[in-house]
Fold this sequence. Notes:
Layout lengths: L2 H6 L3 H5 L3 E6 L2 E6 L4 H6 L24 E4 L6 E2 L10 E3 L3 H15 L16 H10 L16 E4 L2 E3 L9 H9 L5 E4 L6 E4 L11 H6 L5 E3 L12 E6 L8 E7 L2 E7 L12 H5 L2 H4 L7 E4 L2 E4 L2 H13 L6 E6 L4 H15 L5 E3 L21 H7 L2 E2 L9 E4 L5 H10 L2 E7 L9 E6 L8 E4 L5 E4 L12 H11 L1
Parallel strand pairs: 1-5, 16-17, 16-19, 17-18, 19-20, 20-21
Antiparallel strand pairs: 1-2, 3-4, 3-5, 6-7, 7-10, 8-9, 11-12, 12-13, 14-15, 14-21, 22-23
Helix pairs in contact: 4-5, 11-14
Bound molecules: iron/sulfur cluster (2 copies).
Amino acid sequence: MGQAIDARRWTLDDRANMSKVRLIIDGTEIEVDEGTNLIEAAKQIGLEIPHFCYHPGLSPDGNCRMCLVEVEKIPKPVIACKTVATEGMVVKTNTELIEKARSSVMEFLLINHPLDCPTCDQAGECKLQDYYMDYDLQPSRYKEKKVRKRKMIDLGSGVMLDEERCVVCRRCVRFCREIAGKEELYVQERGHNSMVATFPGKEMTNPYSGNTVDVCPVGALTSKDFRYKKRVWYLSQTDSICPGCSRGCNISIHYEGNVVYRLKPRENLEVNKYWMCDFGRYDYKFINEERRLIPAYRKDGVFSEVSYQEAMSYLRETLTSYDPLNIAFIASAQESVEAIDSFVAFAKDKFFADTVYYSKNDPAQSYADDILIAKDKNPNLAHIQKLGLKEVEAIAKDIQAVVIQRNLSESDLGLIKKRGLKVLVLFATNYTKVDERALVIFPIPTYAEQSGCYVNCDGMMQSFKKAFDAQGEAKTIQEYIAEIGALL
Ligand code: SF4
Ligand code: SF4
């Protein structure tokens, strides 16, 4: 993770060594780490001090003035995002003066804001809507004509800007500068003409751009990928881990029924802080599309989808026609710890395999940086390596056929073809290039349809949860292994 982030947010170890200060917020005495600002201090007693421009992962800017609070012995209200808790401080967040100040800030922010809520994608998760209900709730006194601005501006990287909705909190500007390390956005003009923009003739191109949509507290920045697809109140959320690379960013899957609509980052200060990359963010479509949902087999040269029972009995016939010692098992660095362990145990216990092999996602062009994106594009290679599995190119000479846990990389598929190895069984989430060589294919669930764990590049084991049930006739590897074991 880049230094800019670590400099502002402490790790859990740092926190354990920090000195503490005691203060009182709205009559409740609390102890917080030295250096904590009042917004974060209030969170510890479950109190949200309203704010637009403050974000815990970015430097405080203090421009929206929504987080005003009263502090004893200070004559004027102060902004909570830039006021650090000190020993003996007495803070009041709900006085008449503060309520009035918040209402005035809201009135200013809404002067030129369009009445867009019915068509705005942010409706339902918009801070401006929420705070209007909490702190304003009055009709506008502004009778003049609103300032009109441009809508639907493509900033690049799938981010759309609606200038009229922007509250100029500069979170997106700070995100690009401080986290993505790119000067791509700035605020142009002054006063009510102030507007976020890319530099003339430039586009936003950084691979973390999707986070600007997440940090935008209103509907000014929306995602081209998600906008107008689904109202957010229809979506359910499940905690998960991104399988896009070995970083293992913590994410939430947002879905309705068994259709995934978007992925969002989830806070984990030890792994991804508050962010995720765009590769991981938009790599969910394979869960919805091109899914293999029914078992299939190739018999007498004809490939067809068949019932589970037919596939199982053909599998038994096929597996038992080979000497177990001539069959190699290829595990997948894309699968969970549980699925890999069960596959490896099956190979060793039922087929007396001394060596189990593995295949990994290994694209020719593999982007990596020192922010989040890791070179290894597998969520669980660390676990495979701990088990001592070998690469496909090391497959022993006497092997005639293989059982594949899930897909093969291009280069591994090339090796299998070159060696003329039969693919006896392939477990698959989607249609793949390996299909044409497989004798039997069984559908398995994606990470959204099962629970399990991955071990990330720092050796941290993290669990992910099932969002919805496996589709079609898919079963987990563990279920198949138990049933095939009994059959044999
Ligand atoms: S576009 Fe959104 S995040 Fe950026 S300044 Fe405007 S309101 Fe803030
Ligand atoms: S950095 Fe890796 S784990 Fe994180 S979101 Fe991107 S692809 Fe997923």
